[in-house]
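Hi there. Long-time user, first ticket. I'm pasting a complex I've been working with (about 1764 residues overall). I'd like to know whether the download I got is complete or cut off, because the file seemed smaller than I expected. Thanks.
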Amino acid sequence: MNYQSVPTEIPTIGPAKISSPVQKKEYNNICNFVHEEERVLLDINPESIMDKIRNKEAVASFEMAGPREKIYFDPSKLKCAVVTCGGLCPGINDIIRALVLELYYGYRVRHVFGIRYGLQGFIPKYGHDLVDLTPHVVTNILEMGGSILGSSRGPQDIDEIVDCLERSNISLLFMIGGDGTIMAASKIADHISEKGLNISVIAIPKTIDNDIFMVSRSFGFETAVEVATQAIRGAHNEAESYPKGIGMIKLMGRYSGFIAATAALAEQSVNFVLIPEIDFDLDGENGLLNKLGKRLADRNHCVIVVAEGAGQKYFESAENSCDESGNIRLKDIGMYLKDVITGHFSKNNIEISLKYIDPSYMIRSLPANANDSIFCSFLARNAVHAGMAGKTKMLIGHWNDYFVHIPLSATAGKRKQVDPHGPLWRSVLESTGQGALKNDL
Amino acid sequence: MNYQSVPTEIPTIGPAKISSPVQKKEYNNICNFVHEEERVLLDINPESIMDKIRNKEAVASFEMAGPREKIYFDPSKLKCAVVTCGGLCPGINDIIRALVLELYYGYRVRHVFGIRYGLQGFIPKYGHDLVDLTPHVVTNILEMGGSILGSSRGPQDIDEIVDCLERSNISLLFMIGGDGTIMAASKIADHISEKGLNISVIAIPKTIDNDIFMVSRSFGFETAVEVATQAIRGAHNEAESYPKGIGMIKLMGRYSGFIAATAALAEQSVNFVLIPEIDFDLDGENGLLNKLGKRLADRNHCVIVVAEGAGQKYFESAENSCDESGNIRLKDIGMYLKDVITGHFSKNNIEISLKYIDPSYMIRSLPANANDSIFCSFLARNAVHAGMAGKTKMLIGHWNDYFVHIPLSATAGKRKQVDPHGPLWRSVLESTGQGALKNDL
Amino acid sequence: MNYQSVPTEIPTIGPAKISSPVQKKEYNNICNFVHEEERVLLDINPESIMDKIRNKEAVASFEMAGPREKIYFDPSKLKCAVVTCGGLCPGINDIIRALVLELYYGYRVRHVFGIRYGLQGFIPKYGHDLVDLTPHVVTNILEMGGSILGSSRGPQDIDEIVDCLERSNISLLFMIGGDGTIMAASKIADHISEKGLNISVIAIPKTIDNDIFMVSRSFGFETAVEVATQAIRGAHNEAESYPKGIGMIKLMGRYSGFIAATAALAEQSVNFVLIPEIDFDLDGENGLLNKLGKRLADRNHCVIVVAEGAGQKYFESAENSCDESGNIRLKDIGMYLKDVITGHFSKNNIEISLKYIDPSYMIRSLPANANDSIFCSFLARNAVHAGMAGKTKMLIGHWNDYFVHIPLSATAGKRKQVDPHGPLWRSVLESTGQGALKNDL
Amino acid sequence: MNYQSVPTEIPTIGPAKISSPVQKKEYNNICNFVHEEERVLLDINPESIMDKIRNKEAVASFEMAGPREKIYFDPSKLKCAVVTCGGLCPGINDIIRALVLELYYGYRVRHVFGIRYGLQGFIPKYGHDLVDLTPHVVTNILEMGGSILGSSRGPQDIDEIVDCLERSNISLLFMIGGDGTIMAASKIADHISEKGLNISVIAIPKTIDNDIFMVSRSFGFETAVEVATQAIRGAHNEAESYPKGIGMIKLMGRYSGFIAATAALAEQSVNFVLIPEIDFDLDGENGLLNKLGKRLADRNHCVIVVAEGAGQKYFESAENSCDESGNIRLKDIGMYLKDVITGHFSKNNIEISLKYIDPSYMIRSLPANANDSIFCSFLARNAVHAGMAGKTKMLIGHWNDYFVHIPLSATAGKRKQVDPHGPLWRSVLESTGQGALKNDL
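Hi, the file is complete. Here it is re-exported in full:
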């Protein structure tokens, strides 16, 4: 893809003139700051980089995340706030904890507030009080899933949110959420600019589906894959234990099938993976039903993994509704496939034993595993560094294995998807042997 | 309860005259056999025992399980078979493995066959071959859930089953299954007697619901409780993370609520437990809906655990259907409650956030945890000891903390349930504070 | 064994005259109290019970644990304290939590204090403050291992302890600890009697070794076995992965080999189990070294589990020292065996690959698994019921599958051990095939 | 660092002229091959890339891994072999399994042999037979830790190894091992060239320490960190539960402290991290002992993580010995620190409670977690793609988040270490607050 069009410049709310308290004298010999010139190329293909340079085009790169020598906010006077929005995801509490610990111990900020129940917490009519976030409050929250602040879905009035920030003297806001939240962060930051306020907004992308554009890994994803793997193992055991046994697991992934595709690779016992990015037929020679029949005839059992957003074409005629966040309510492809498959074999007088597993809430409400905890710790510390330096309208991302600053405008309204020609999907095809489930190619 | 009516005598298929190879000479000083006189009282209350004795009544007791000095079968000529029936349960493979290892290394039996796919495996028309079960085949199956032999539901022709045993020269059959299987074992053993054959039938009770009559603990139950606990934790996280959040978990338990009641005690974050043994109202002052409303008003979140067999009175008018095993297909109380609760609060204009979790297949298809593995090992070894001694028409049970021999007739057709006046339910009431969910008491 | 000599009577500090607040009216129809006549036989063998009765001997039985209709203490005035002593064990925090929740919500006791760092917390010179234990403090401690109160080893002055209780107006003391603590509890209770004070002392036995006399199961043991099993699996992997690989695991068990013997049964990949109760030779035909050599020659790998208290005869000449609790410091049998085995094969020019694993602190510092959590919840609630009823000088035990009251005098100074003739050790012999490791039998 | 000097060219043993069977016709529309021009920059800093180009210097890049359209070997005639060397690491069996499945199902290679017990398996005098590796053999090995092929340490005669390959007609050898193995692979490949044989050698780097030069992530590392985290949690519980409690954990890391530094970030309860890359003093104002004393005085407990290779300067005078692989046997810094710390506080009459945990064998013998399994699957499939394409003298690495081909010469004899100025160590300093443990800076 062409990365040249991706915005990479990070706005600031003012000049960073204060010496950072982060690096105490005793560290000097062994630790340093990140300089603004340290950047990370978007594209790592030497051919295309060379082409750009020959054509005198600019080469796109992101700012490297990390502590700056000079900061914008005076820690002794600063008030910060943290809000968590949307669905649960393993690691939210890790993020909250690391934000508070870095602000408190790293920068000696003494006022960090938690906003209760997502954007609702800004809005007076809901009556949710602010929560004081101190090291004592957050120190033991790692083992808990969910969000100690609570969350909620759906937009709230941007004006009221900014009013709340202003009224509470909050100058640095950390927003943890998915693409809806990134959109809201963008609008909040714009409204702040319009009002001429000096409030910085830093987002930390939260998406269990791993579908934030320009963010190669998002927190909680590895935990989700790990638990999804256990569900697949259960489905495989059910499938193998009965004649013509079918284990079918529905996994999260509204528009992007990363969890389904990745989890399918862990044990390689999956025979069909269905994701939103790849169209599939049910009928016809190459359709799922025919191939499933062959598989059962050959091997007597079969495991199917379906992402929740797959096969939505089968509901096209049905009318759509939306949830409070404005997400289109997807029809349940898992239940649909269960019915279609059961009907198909029943019609053909073949007795099957289909077990359907939908583990979604059991996955998203878990605490993060150790590697996601570590990842969260880096995300949050880097978010603090960026915010303290006066950067705004940005999120902390991960690109080419580095933590980077990404402008909200680079990701808002876009979505990362499984590349049908890339190594992930190729591995799924190799591992499942499912081929193209399409009759006309 | 009155234990006096419980049958306790174990039939044998012939006299045990052969010296057991189990206890090799070198063991003599440190290991011994179980004598037939070693028995375990059914009732451990001294008052009622004294009463019996004063009234010259017999005092009921079970045979203690364990290796006998003399055995009936000649190991060098014996052929054994193992069959696993019904739904999956953690530990089935542990049972298979320990049966094979004890027969092979303990008694030096060289012919152990696995019957494929439950009772189907006996019936020629299904065409499932017997499987040779050797130490090599079973040595690494502990980490796998499910059953390496496969299973199936539903009865098969008893005559054909006994024919198969006779034709294959199998003289010792181990049947792993629930109450349907225990019934089948009873009929098979009766038919064997009628035909004058010397085939012993030993059952090992398998019930993830822990509802076999006169069996205080069944394998897989602790594993099931452990994983159910994780689902409850997830539900609790979901409930706490949203305003007026409700986490509802449906757990296994068709007629007995042991998993639901026990798992609710592990974290004590559950507010309502609904089980088949305890009637509950939805409406009225003491009904679930009113109490749930109060809970949400007071604490803003709530966790409900419902056993699949609870509240079936709400479906009484609906017509019933049965599955292949003849089990009545229960209506889905979880989905029903979800709809009723959602409707109730919607009608009252209270916005709730209800998350419904149904982890059943993810639980039953797991491998056993370490303690269940150990328990399985004792069950299986004791089953082998009993079978080799020529005992038949019995199952291996656990009573007052001892492994015992229980006649099939003692449990077939009955069911263990949660005692509304016993310590388990009392603890649930203490832990949840739910009180009686009934308007007329 | 002869249970007739075991004391079974539980002292009280006064008559229980106050109606218990535990059972609220709404429960009446579905829950009841435990009556004092409900008891549990120590011996469940019908033969020996009959013999006793024929001989007009008393038949020993324990009081059944559970809530009483009448209590001694007035909840509105009562102050309670909780202390945790000795080594860590999975489940201590579960016990603390359930004690507090039952006292607070069940009996409406409003003053529960935590004593810091074991018996040290009673002694002024250490300067440890009391901790207020409220539901808020304990609600989220389940996921944490260790003890939130802290612990310490060693005795403290009994007089000072009783002074502290008196000075703080504490009338009900819960002591969580092992045999040293049970001894201390006994002395404290005696001193209280001597001083004519109305202070009740209830112990909850804590022993990861599962070696408290007359207590069939103690909390944390199943968790310990579960994790020990993982260490064994690791040792087995190491052993199998190298030519003549030996995996040796040292497990806890100073005087009793329950963890070693039980964990060895979980996977049945262990070839030798060495425990304090069973003597073994190193040299000679039946000695460990010769049998190990044969095993390596035959199968090329071997797994050995050794309890820390096994083979202490090899250190007899060495002088002994004691730790602060007065426990004799055992010589390290694991390191000793490692050296002996390495030397033996080196002398015989056989190259082996021995890996030694000592997981003890990784086990005892864990949080309890779900089943231990549930067990802890029952122990603690029953301890509260007993204490509120005015019972004293007792501990909560588990016998023949029931929770019972056991006088401190029944267990203090004695120890439960693995019965060389019982089913546990018999199963170890069957599973390992190790035979007697003795030359003269 | 200057990446320009890193070799990046991959040798081949001949032209790839055969059409790959991997991509069957039905895949064509949705899957493609990797072209030789697809490469990954070593350096992703745009500044330095620009500099290179302005200076007309070449810009270093690695070949992208993945399936090629044309392959060198004829699958129907090819014989492959797999060997696993050195210490255990989570994921070895995942690698073996994915190699076999890709060769068998992807390329239809029918002859894959396993070499037993590392390089020993090539040498006739050890008498280890080759093992046939078929899908059936490997399908269920994922849950097992260790290596199903076995391993061994130490070099073997290169000539004999190549003879064995030639004699067995093996043309494609996969070597799984650490830096010793990579050296051996290099020598074997050179000897093959000298003898004019057409045998390809592909290495898959195995290092639980994550210290292979130019390889950003190696398999098993995340699993190791996850389990190390549990050990740290245990140490933390021990430390908090006793007055002046110290929990000390020794973790793997002979020359590189990645596990210690990374695991310390997961829970952020660690106070001191000691790694080989960072010198530290024991005595003096900034020395460990003084800072530890302050920590205990302030907070009453402390957690120390020490990598096995840290502080080797304290053993400088001691003579060194080597293990069979030629690794210098490190002195045990953990035991040394334990003694020094105990002595220090004893001398100062301060009673501490130090618990020392060394979990190494419990970590390395584990099966891989789900994310490492997936990573292994990618590594192994890419190794097969590279080998089938006729590439040799290379390993499969991971760089800037891509799988790449790295010449053996780029990594052999070098080592990756924790950068004292990089984000990992900076985060450790922020999280621990330990500062520089040096008196002269």
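A couple of notes from our side: Chain A has two domains: 3-218+366-411, 222-365+421-432. The first helix of chain A runs from residue 46 to 54.
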